[in-house]
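Here is the promised in-class demo. Please do not try to memorize the tokens; focus on the logic of going from shape to residues.
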């Protein structure tokens, strides 16, 4: 695979919906498939933003060769979200080695509708016992919040500060069996706060459209079909004080665009990345790091949790095996490829292969140190027409304190 010279991320792109956004992907929401919000997918992936760039290039650059040269070095990453008036300090998924409890009565001061919480425990990898243990060398017990987010400006505090001293201030109690002590209230006053999601799903009914054109079905013309004339769209309402955020190395004009499923209108703004964020993205990852975007690895036939898998099924990066991995259930990942042979405007595009993505927040511990994500070669990423590096696959930031101190001393 030839290496494409991609510039580093230079721009923060904010997207504010002008109404609802589409919150489903893949499966059709038929009456038999409505339980549990089947097919829910939100926020839109970075591949959706890449398609927006391609659509803009098609409209502004008629010459196909010039258009391809313009899009060839494109690189985007996301999704994230931010307060509308401070997009540079956007929020990223909380790493999985930080165990969070959300407070029902506590809400964000800047955005009152969003719930907030605090980190209760932090997990460290202990090579001697091959376990993830909290700051008091215990295994975590209890129920904890999922899908939390943390500000990017707080990353240094969680990635490079140990906080193990807080164990001395933790209150302990005995379980009913009286055998095992549990950390129940570990909290540091100045620990960065985490936030919940700023969107909610708003399912709403639509009249059913004709299969071959975007027109409502006339009940009198469709008497033989007993499916009814309505279908359910899984819309998503974003808090009006928030916006979706993506990173890009290519500038795009500000304005209104159609974005995501069903072509909902959004207001897009593009501004340059601040120096602090650029520095963080260029810092070497070291031996331990966390992903902040979905990571798709493997071949066209097999999804993996890392770029490489040897004959003994050991995962890792080329020449660098994984020592420890902290992750959760993979998520389906698919996008539209474009380049449909159908000449009709607005015709549906081809779908990519269905794959599984390692969720953002996954923490890796490797045998040896690794350079920053921007320096990773294209050969490490899957390719289907284009390299998945264009979509910011597995964008990672350093997590310097994920390894227990005993190993560092060695």
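The designed amino acids, position by position:
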């Amino acid at each position: 695979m030839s290496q494409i010279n991609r510039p580093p991320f230079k721009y923060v792109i904010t997207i504010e919906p002008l109404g609802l956004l589409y919150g489903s992907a893949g499966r059709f929401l038929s009456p038999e498939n409505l339980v549990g919000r089947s097919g829910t997918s939100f926020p839109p992936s970075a591949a959706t933003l890449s398609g927006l760039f391609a659509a803009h290039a098609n409209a502004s650059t008629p010459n196909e060769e010039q258009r391809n040269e313009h899009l060839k070095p494109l690189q985007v990453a996301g999704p994230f979200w931010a307060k509308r008036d401070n997009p540079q300090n956007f929020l990223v998924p909380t790493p999985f080695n930080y165990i969070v409890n959300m407070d029902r009565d506590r809400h964000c001061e800047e955005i009152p509708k969003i719930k907030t919480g605090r980190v209760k425990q932090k997990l460290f990898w202990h090579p001697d016992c091959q376990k993830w243990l909290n700051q008091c060398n215990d295994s975590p017990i209890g129920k904890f919040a999922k899908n939390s987010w943390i500000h990017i400006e707080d990353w240094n505090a969680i990635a490079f500060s140990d906080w193990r001293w807080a164990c001395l201030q933790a209150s302990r109690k005995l379980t009913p069996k009286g055998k095992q002590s549990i950390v129940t209230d570990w909290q540091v006053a100045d620990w960065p706060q985490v936030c919940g999601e700023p969107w909610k799903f708003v399912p709403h009914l639509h009249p059913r459209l004709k299969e071959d054109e975007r027109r409502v079905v006339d009940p009198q013309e469709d008497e033989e079909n007993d499916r009814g004339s309505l279908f359910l769209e899984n819309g998503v309402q974003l808090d009006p004080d928030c916006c979706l955020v993506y990173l890009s190395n290519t500038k795009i004009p500000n304005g209104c665009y159609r974005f995501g499923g069903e072509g909902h209108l959004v207001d897009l703004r593009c501004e340059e990345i601040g120096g602090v964020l650029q520095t963080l993205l260029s810092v070497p990852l070291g031996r331990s790091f966390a992903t902040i975007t979905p990571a798709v690895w493997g071949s066209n036939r097999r999804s993996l949790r890392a770029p490489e898998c040897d004959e003994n099924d050991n995962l890792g990066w080329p020449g660098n095996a994984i020592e420890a991995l902290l992750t959760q259930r993979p998520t389906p990942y698919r996008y539209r490829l474009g380049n449909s042979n159908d000449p009709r405007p607005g015709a549906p595009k081809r779908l990519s292969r269905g794959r599984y993505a390692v969720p953002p927040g996954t923490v890796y511990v490797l045998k040896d140190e690794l350079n920053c994500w921007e320096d990773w070669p294209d050969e490490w990423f899957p390719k289907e027409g284009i390299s998945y590096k264009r979509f910011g696959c597995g964008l990672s930031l350093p997590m310097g304190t994920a390894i227990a101190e005993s190993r560092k001393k060695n």
